Write the C-alpha cells for this entry.
Amino acid sequence: VTFDFHMNSRYHNGYDYQPSDRYLVYNIGNNNDAYGEVTWFKQQLDQVISIINNELQIPIVLRLFHEMNGNWFWWGTQAYGGATAYINFYRFAVNYIKDRTNYVLFAWSPNYPWTTAYYPGNSYVDVVGIDMYDIGTGSGPSMSTMIDQLTAVSDFAWNNGKVPIFAETGNRVNSPDSWPWWWYNIFDQIQNSNRAWKIAWMLTWINANWGNVPYVAHSGSSADAKRGLQDFQNMANTLFQPEAANRNMYDYSWRSTSMKIELAVDNAVSQNIELYPNPISAFDYLNIKSAESLKKVEIFDIQGRSVLLKNYNGLVSDDRIQMNRLQSGIYWVRISTENLQEVKRLVVQ
C-alpha cells in the first residue's frame, strides 16, 4: 500500500512554487524555526502520522517530496540551497516520522531524467523510483528511453539494497479511444526488457484535473478502448483489486501485539541481537548473534506470510540460516529469546 500526496506550502494554498517559498526548505532542513516554519512542518507531518497510526495501522510505503529535480513544487529546484538543502529537509522529515511510527517504508523518486543528485542516503530511503509521463506520445520520452531510465533505477536499487519502482506515470496526451492499448504497450515493453522488469510496481496517476482524465476505458469509451483495458488486465503480471482481495493481501491478522516492526534501518544491528549480512544474497547464509539463548527465528515476507521458521532448544545464541533461495525483496525477521523479541528488516537481493 502506498501513501502519495502533495503537501501544500505554509504560505499559500497550493504545492506549486511561489517566491514566498524560497527559504522554506532551507530553514526546515536546518531546524530554523525563527518564522515558525519548523513548527508548521511538524504539524503537517503529525496529521499524516495520525492517519498511519490510528486509521491504517498496516505497513505502508510513504513517498515524500517527489520530483525535487523539477521547478514546479515548493521543495523543487527554485527553493534556496539546492540539493544540499533538499537532502537536509528530506532527512528531517524521515527522522521525525521514524521517531513516531513503525509502519513506514520511505520512497524517493525524482522526475525524468533519472538523477541521484538529490538522493538523501541509504539510511533514509527504502524504495527508489522515477516519475515519467506521456511515454511514446511525442510529448514525452520514447519507449526505449523509458526502458533505459527504468534500467538505471533498477541497477541503482540493486547496488544499494533498495526496491525499484515506476513511481508515477500516465498519458496526458491521448484518450483511451485514440490509443486503446497504451497501458498494454507500456507494460509489455517493461516485461520484455533486460532489467527494467525488476520494478516492483507502477503507480498510475490519473485522478488529476489536467490532461485527458482519466486515461482508462469507461462505459462511454469505444469498443477498442474497452478491449485494450481488458487485454491489459489479462496480462500475466498485472494484478487488479478483485484478485488482490481474493489473495487476502491486506489481511494483517498474523501480527501479534508484541511484534514491533523496525523500519528504514540501515544495518539491522541492536544492542541485543546482531543480524548480518544485510542486504543478503538469496544463496547466502544469514548470521544471527544474540546476547541470550535463541528460542525461535521466523522470517515473514512483505505480505506477512511466514516463509521460514526455525526453533531452538535454548542452548544456542549464535546461528547461521540458509536463505533457501528466497525471492528478492524486503522481509521481516522475528527473533525470540527467553526474555526478548525483536523484529528486524532484511533485504534479500
In short: The chain has two domains: 2-246, 273-348. The domain at 273-348 is CATH 2.60.40.3080 (Immunoglobulin-like). The longest helix spans residues 37-56. The two ends are 21 Å apart (CA to CA).
